[in-house]
UniProtKB/TrEMBL annotation:
This is Laminin EGF-like domain-containing protein. Residues 413-457, 458-504, 533-578, 600-645, 658-703, 704-748, 749-803, 804-856 form the Laminin EGF-like domain. It is found in: Secreted, Extracellular space, Extracellular matrix, Basement membrane. Its main location: secreted. Keywords: Basement membrane, Disulfide bond, Extracellular matrix, Glycoprotein, Laminin EGF-like domain, Repeat, Secreted, Signal. It comes from the Eukaryota. Transmembrane segments: none annotated. Disulfide bonds join 433-442, 458-470, 460-477, 479-488, 533-545, 535-552, 554-563, 600-612, 602-619, 621-630, 658-670, 660-677, 679-688, 704-716, 724-733, 774-783, 827-836. PANTHER family: LAMININ SUBUNIT ALPHA 5, NETRIN/LAMININ-RELATED. It comes from Dracunculus medinensis.
């Protein structure tokens, strides 16, 4: 018997709330395959060898017993067999006639997939007799079974247990099947494994976590346990002509040696596994947040990554993207859609994290104004903090009229650091007093302090003094009754716990009754006594006890109020030795190590709560247990350590304790722990008194022999009648039901009336193996789909379907293919329409040889109305007073404003007295000054006012072109105030510092705090009393420095012969093995001939547009018409 492992390592390593699921794909394509024994390969290198290398065996040598040579042969056996059979990979003990491919695909990363089905095709060997399909979810570290395979149900039970024969009940049930272990066909057999079939959650996959977990895999392994030997182990080597074990073919030209070699091959055909095709259908695990998965990271070229939507991120969309963590990430399911929401940070942060505690307590405000979710904002700006950046930082407060989404919502507190903490009240800004101060203005001493304005701490303890006296009188503070000391800072005698308020000790109360001698009354006297703790020295940790219960603190192994007894599990006071066999206390383990005679061996599972007798140390057994250590079951019990009773109707069984059935069990002795009897293959249950699945009529238990393809399972009823599928009938489900044809498929005669020919008379009137007779342009087993390049299956169409009629200029790869249902052709990127005969919006000039179909309109975003243009000429739709094909030119006598139109000369400014400013013109002090000169700041002229006009509302940065001629830093203040606007605008200001300069510089003064300016007239006040030269100012709108409209994606195809490095879209066609190009000069005739009469000029493809890196390429037209090419060739 030969065991082998074939391991397939694949890359399991791929805003509206809807369930997004990637399409199914072949997961095995291009993945690395490894095996424990591979023929034709050693250490990853291909070799030509006659006999396969067993895993761990020595390499082939010409001196071993299998040596032979083919030097004198005209054609080697290897070449003959390779010419006869296709190349495949096989592993085992006999010959290998394949050459291994030395190019392996080794994935750099791994990823999980949902696998739905596995299809395997064998090569020159039968299917394995017994094997296991396994999966791994930890990238090949460990494997678990997916499905078992064996020759018979009995083999399933023997190899994989009786549970493997149970029908699928749960989504993760692992079953054993035998329909794929048959001997026929011997070669090219197929194995189709549908992992989703008959599982309860297959129709509701997104809600079944169990089925999702069952279908997950990172690696797949075929564990091949036993070959299909055809009883080859019984074959006599001398009887080579035995037809039961050989397949000898006659060869007229073969020599004897070759015939014998071929016989040797056929004789041992069954001793290896040969697999030539594997297909695994599955899809990426994207948790319902991605519709596709592909290669997105150039650093991981073999990793399929989900294209996440719903604001999710990660290779499997397994988390919310940064800034979108208001809600805890969830998978999207059918009926339970989920989209990651952005956190509500009121514009003060773009970072946040999810906090489950905030979510549970409803403390986080979402973007809808509800306290729903757990988003916590991080790194809040603008002096804010808190869960939603809705709290001012320490030292700041929010005025009453400010909203949280305003940039300057938090203002600094104006407080005295000597009396105030630095914090102030919300809305009012009222400062918070330090602990030693109180009063509205924090000008009084708080409780516990004295002596304003310093307010020193009181010397007396306020908690312990009467009337909260602060200073001692005559050296003693007036203390309360339960406090003492000079400053009342400790508990009085009889009281304890100063921090808790000096609580009195517990005194046990006694009542004594006194009778007077005159017997005319009774006197009650109350005594409160303090009792002494009576803790035993041997068993107590110390001599103190609990003040309420007088319970002493006992050592391990001791118990009782005074620790004068042994605890449970200990005996022989005062030694208190332990009698516990397992889970020993540390002290007991230490004693057992020191004193070897110490006997700690009671089994806790079999003993009562006391464990052992306190005096003798003998173990106290529970009912059903016996033995010195209580570690055995009594005779009438089994299943230690649970010891279940073996009885029926309260009568103990003595001669047949296990009650094993004499008919169904192999022995009358049962398992001492489980009580299970050893059953024959056709019996089951604990005592083997029932028929196993697949057998019926106890006690005969005959096999059901149900046809696997026709029955619903292995079981049958008490009469031996199998449970047939809907299209089968018969006692063994081995016949087709009426109106079903082609056994063993048993297909229903459900031919589509729109797709069958008018002469179709029924499924029983066609040739054997056929079902329906389709119209010319119709395909499918039941004539229910159109042939390629056709669509719209209708009864009134003569040929069933009509041609796609795609415009090849706009179709992908210039193919005439379309959707079989709606007829939509598969368009190039910028083509549209059902026939792909139009350009998409924003594109024009549909061209045959344009890889993208159309050219971009390139309309100017500022001058055009939208991105659309005329689909033929490319003329954009311009705004008023703008012209040009792209709407990027002003009409005559008009101009486009630039940044220079927001430039204001300082020498044109005014003083606060509304006079012209003083300015200088000395170029040696301010080189290259503009216009008339530059303004000069000094103590005489400390302010310059510039009047400006804003035509467009935006956020502006202010640039100053100036020079600091001094040797010290100069501070200045810039204030901008509205003079005439149509909005409620406020004054804005910023302070700036200018370092000494050798040459004039242009400086942005409000980069972190830009001005918000609305249309209208404004005044800019620039103030400084130090010497400073100012040439001009420039207002820079955000559209210029942010460049939001300057983002442009490539829209033109790359040209193969172009040397310019422009942004373009590069498409590559799959290379052909053989193809040729030729240049056609204009003078030569090249035309196509259709239907032998119609002649049309042949379409010419400019060689310039063919990418050079394609290699061999050819133009292919896909339709059902034949053509002839007529060309003139000069000698």
């Amino acid at each position: 018997m030969f065991s082998g492992l074939v391991i397939f390592t694949f890359v399991l390593t791929n805003i509206c709330g809807q369930v997004l699921v990637p399409p199914y794909t072949n997961l095995a394509l291009g993945k690395r395959i490894t095996a424990t024994a591979t023929c034709g390969e050693i250490n990853g290198k291909p070799i030509k060898e006659m006999f396969c290398q067993i895993a761990g065996s020595n390499q082939y040598s010409p001196h071993n017993q299998y040596s032979y040579t083919t030097v004198n042969d005209r054609l080697s056996v290897f070449q003959e067999f390779k010419a006869e059979k296709q190349s495949f990979v096989q592993g085992g003990q006999i010959c290998d006639f394949c050459q291994a491919n030395t190019s392996f695909a080794h994935p750099a990363e791994n990823m999980e997939f949902h696998v739905a089905y596995v299809w395997i095709q064998m090569a020159s060997s039968p299917r394995p007799a017994s094997w296991i399909l396994e999966r791994s979810v930890d990238y090949g570290k460990t494997f678990m079974p997916w499905q078992y395979f064996a020759e018979t149900p009995a083999e399933c039970a023997r190899l994989f247990g009786r549970n493997s024969l149970q029908p699928i009940i749960e989504d993760d049930s692992v079953i054993c099947t035998h329909e794929y272990s048959g001997i026929h066909p011997i070669e090219n057999a197929e194995i189709m494994i549908n992992l989703m079939e008959d599982r309860p959650g297959r129709h509701n996959f997104s809600h079944s976590l169990t089925l999702q977990s069952f279908s997950r895999a990172t690696n797949v392994r075929l564990q091949l346990l036993r070959t299909k030997t055809l009883h080859g182990h019984l074959m006599d080597v001398n009887r080579r002509n035995d037809p039961t074990v050989t397949r000898l073919s006659k060869c007229k030209t073969c020599s004897k040696g070759k015939a014998e070699l071929f016989w040797s091959y056929t004789q041992n055909l069954q001793y290896y596994y040969a697999i030539k095709e594997i297909f695994m259908g599955g899809r990426c695990v994207c948790n319902g947040h991605a519709g596709t998965c592909d290669i997105l990271d150039a650093r991981r070229p073999r990793l399929l990554v989900c294209r996440c939507e719903h604001n999710t991120c990660g290779d499997q969309c397994e988390r919310c993207c940064p800034g979108y963590e208001q809600k805890q990430w969830r998978r999207t399911k059918e009926g339970e859609h989920f989209v990651c929401e952005p956190c509500n940070c009121h514009g003060h942060s773009e970072e946040c994290e999810y906090d489950a505690e905030l979510d549970a307590k409803n403390l986080s405000l979402d973007i809808h104004g509800n306290y729903n979710g757990g988003g916590r904002c991080l790194n809040c700006r603008d002096n804010t903090e808190g869960v939603n950046c809705n709290k001012c930082s320490f030292g700041y407060y929010r005025p009453k009229d400010k909203l949280w989404n305003e940039t300057d919502v938090c203002h600094r507190c104006v407080c005295d650091p000597l009396k105030h903490t630095g914090a102030c009240q919300e809305e009012t800004g009222h400062c918070e007093c330090k602990p030693q101060f109180t009063g509205e203005n924090c000008d009084k001493c708080a409780l516990g302090y004295y002596g304003p304005p310093e307010c020193k701490p009181c010397e007396c303890s306020l908690n312990g003094t009467i009337d909260e006296i602060c200073l001692p009188e005559d050296g003693q503070c007036p203390c309360k009754s339960n406090y003492g000391g000079l400053f009342c800072s400790k508990c009085a005698l009889g009281y304890t716990n100063f921090s808790a308020g000096c609580i009195g000790l517990y005194f046990q109360v006694f009542w004594m009754i006194f009778y007077n001698f005159n017997c005319d009354g009774i006197t009650f006297v109350e005594f409160a006594l303090i009792l002494e703790c009576k803790c035993e020295t041997i068993g107590s940790v110390h001599s103190h006890c609990n003040e309420n219960s007088s319970q002493c603190s006992c050592k391990s192994g001791f118990a009782g109020l005074s620790c004068d007894k042994c605890a449970s599990g200990y005996f022989n006071y005062p030694k208190c030795e332990c009698k516990l066999r397992i889970n020993l206390p540390k002290e007991c383990k230490r004693l057992a190590y020191i004193n070897e005679k110490l006997d700690c061996d009671c089994d806790p599972s079999g003993t009562e709560a006391e464990i052992c007798d306190k005096a003798s140390g003998k173990c106290i057994c529970k009912g059903g247990f016996f033995g010195e250590k209580c570690d055995q079951c009594q005779k009438e019990f089994y299943g230690y350590p649970h010891c279940k009773v073996k009885k029926k109707i309260n009568v103990f069984i003595s001669d047949q304790k296990c009650n094993c059935s004499k008919i169904g069990s192999q022995s009358l002795i049962c398992d001492t722990k489980t009580g299970d009897c050893q059953c024959y293959a056709n019996f089951t249950s604990r005592i083997c008194d029932r028929c196993a699945p697949g057998f019926y009529e106890y006690p005969k238990c005959m096999p059901c022999s149900c046809l696997a393809s026709g029955s619903k399972g292995l079981t049958c009823d008490s009469q031996g009648h199998c449970y047939c599928k809907d299209n089968f009938q018969g006692e063994k489900c081995d016949k087709c039901k009426e109106n079903f044809y082609n056994f063993p498929i048993c297909e229903e005669c459900n031919c589509n009336p729109n797709g069958v020919v008018t002469s179709f008379a029924g499924c029983d009137k066609v040739a054997p193996g056929e079902l329906c007779t389709c119209k010319r342009n119709v395909a499918g087993r039941t004539c229910d789909q159109c042939q390629p390049t056709y669509w719209d299956l209708q009864y009134h169409h003569e040929d069933g379907c009509v041609e796609c009629d795609c415009d090849i200029a706009g179709s992908l790869s210039m193919l005439n293919t379309c959707d079989l249902v709606d007829g939509q052709c598969f368009c190039k990127r910028y083509a549209s329409g059902r026939k792909c005969n139009k350009c998409a919006y924003g594109f024009y000039d549909l061209q045959l040889h344009n890889q993208l179909a159309c050219r971009k309109c390139k309309c100017d975003v500022g001058g055009a109305l939208g991105i659309g243009c005329d689909i033929k000429t490319g003329q954009c739709k311009c705004r008023p007073r703008i012209t040009g094909k792209r709407c990027n030119e002003p009409i005559e006598n008009h101009y486009f404003p630039t940044l220079w139109h927001n430039k204001y000369e300082a020498e044109d400014g005014l003083s606060p007295e509304n006079r012209a400013v003083r300015f200088a013109t000395d170029q040696s002090l301010f080189p290259n000054s503009s216009m008339r000169g530059y303004a000069v700041f000094s103590p005489i002229q400390d302010e310059v006012i510039l009047e400006i006009t804003i035509s467009k509302a935006s956020i502006y940065r202010l640039l100053l072109h100036l020079m600091n001629p001094t040797t010290v830093d100069i501070g200045a203040e810039i204030i901008i105030t509205p003079t005439y606007t149509h909005t409620q605008d406020v004054e804005q200001s910023v302070k700036a510092t200018f370092s000494p300069m050798d040459m004039p510089s242009t400086i942005c003064v409000n980069k972190n705090q830009p001005f918000v300016l609305n249309p209208g007239r404004w005044r800019i006040h620039i103030r400084t009393k130090q010497r400073l030269f100012l040439d001009y100012i420039v207002l820079l709108p955000s559209e210029y420095y942010e460049g939001t409209l300057l983002k442009e994606s490539p829209n033109e195809p790359c040209e193969g012969l172009s040397k310019e490095k422009n942004n373009c879209v590069d498409f590559l066609y799959p290379p052909l093995k053989t193809a040729a190009r030729t240049s056609v000069e204009d003078g030569l005739m090249t035309e196509t001939i259709e239907d032998e009469t119609v002649r049309k000029p042949l379409e010419k493809m400019p060689i310039e547009i063919l990418p050079a890196i394609i290699g061999n390429a050819a133009y292919i037209r896909a339709d059902n018409r034949s053509r002839q090419i007529h060309m003139e060739i000069e000698d």
